[in-house]
Amino acid sequence: MENFDYDLTSLQEARNLLKKGYKAFKEYAGYTEEQVDKIIKSMVDAAMEHAVCLGELANEETGFGIAADKAYKNYAASALLYDDIKDMKTIGVIGRDEKKKIIEVADPVGLVMGIVPSTNPTSTIIFKSIIALKSRNAIIFSPHPSALKCSLKAAQIMEEAAVKAGAPEGIVTCITMPSLATTNEMMHSKEVALIIATGGPAMVKAAYSAGKPAIGVGAGNSPAYIERSADIKKAVERIMASKTFDNGTICASEQSIICEEANQSEVIKEFIKAGAYFMTDDETAKVCALLFKNNMAMNAKYVGKDAKFIASGAGISIPDNTKVLIGRQYGVGKDHPLSHEKLTTVLAFYVVKDWEEACHLSIDLLQNGIGHTMSIHTNNEDIVNKFMVKPASRILVNTGGTQGGTGISTGMLTSFTLGCGTMGGSSVSENVGPLHLVNIKKVAYGIKDVTTLAKDDERFCKLINKQNTCTDKKAEEKSCCVNGCSFNSFELSPNEIATMFTNSVNTLSADAKKEDKVSDMSDEELKNLIFKVIKSVN
After folding, report:
1. What is the pLDDT of residue 1?
2. Residue 10 CB contacts under 8 Å (≥ 6 apart), including other chains
């Protein structure tokens, strides 16, 4: 048998799957709401059944995070998502406005391409598969090479569950030989209608450069501000529960803690009680050298790792019960590495004088993850109002960033694709869901008579009458002959008046012309001269 180059085989496989997926979409687009609901329920049940084994598989293959937490993410991406969307209208008529006589109709977008990150591979595939099929789309995945095995298994489970419930084969597919060239070709293929990109900045940028609709989500760098009115014990517990969940691999997790001079001592005390270790400046420098490369990109070896693993790599000693490493920072930027995103169990720590200083610092920190998420812990509603204007699409109050940002502990849609808005280079700012994957058409009935629109509009008529009055007045002030003249039943057009006026200047007003008095005439003198011309001609 002839051996083919990996890249060529990968490309051919992708082309075959794209055709298969597009064919499946064309059939599935005609399914009824009842058929789709049955398929979605089957997929959710299958995801819940395999949540634990998929979590273990993802943790084993990637080395990131905690297996039990990955299992919960799989559960959230299926069961909790289902609670949010099971009654959501995504097919046919989804809305009516009887007063404006408008009907909203949802149509699927087509074959969706899902790009899968290594940090959350199985939960991302479960989530994107369910929202795609809920909107009558098909989906094809391009997984991260380091999470290939678990991604293929998750996609297989979703496909089999969907087909078992009546979906066409090819409705959920995943390439088995991932490469940058293949992913790029998939993004530019004619079969793909829309791209959902979850991954690094380069991949998200490539998705938006593919020349077709894309939903990309950027990096997070969420600050958590513990304001002086906050319940400090609860605030710390929430932050620790968020940052230690799956070892900090979710992009909405906290990256920096901001407290005030007034509550600094108590905040530090509560963090230590909860299992945090405050590093010295020297220890912080060692950890930073370990975590970051020269371009401030994080070293993948330490993504989603526990505090002990990181401390061991940095050569520092920490207590046995340590869950999170915290390093004091005195600024933002390249010279202060912990001010950047860290998808692991390390936090930056800042102390400010008051909420105003916290406000400015939050904005500075968010520049490295603009548009994503920030958290506030406070019992002062005025502080919440002040922080609403920060450049983040999710302003979370009194909850953990991981659970709050994904909608698990807040009233937002449960989602594992978190839009960052135009400030973060994203086309959406919400938690992405099924309604982002439909085209909404409008059926609009005429409610006004187009033959009498202007006449029937009282406001417009008043406007016209007012302008006409002003125009007439100005015309009258300038000259009575702007639109021609009528004198003793003798009518003259404006052109005739102009010609006769010129002749008059050359004949009757020779002296005035010589003395260049015509240009100095007032409007009244000019009007009298015109009348003299008309009289002489008549």
Report:
1. 40
2. 175, 177, 178, 179, 181, 182
Contacts of 339 (CB under 8 A, 6+ apart): 221, 256, 329, 331, 332, 333, 348, 364, 365, 368
Distance of alpha carbon 346 from alpha carbon 328, whole angstroms: 11
- In this prediction the pTM is 0.84
Distances (CA, A) of 450 to 103, 238, 464: 21, 59, 18
Distance CA 119, CA 183 (A): 18
What length is written for the chain? 538
Active site residue 485: no
| Tens digit of each residue's pLDDT (9 = 90 or more) over 214-259 | 998 878 899 999 999 999 999 999 999 999 999 999 999 999 999 9
Strands (DSSP E) found in 378-456: 392-397, 438-444
pLDDT tens-digit profile of 418-434? Answer: 998 888 888 899 999 99
Spatial contact of 317 and 311, defined as CB atoms under 8 Å apart: yes
Of 174, 251, 288, 420, which is the active-site residue? 251
Strands 392-397 and 371-377: parallel
Map residue 535 onto helix, strand or coil.
Answer: helix
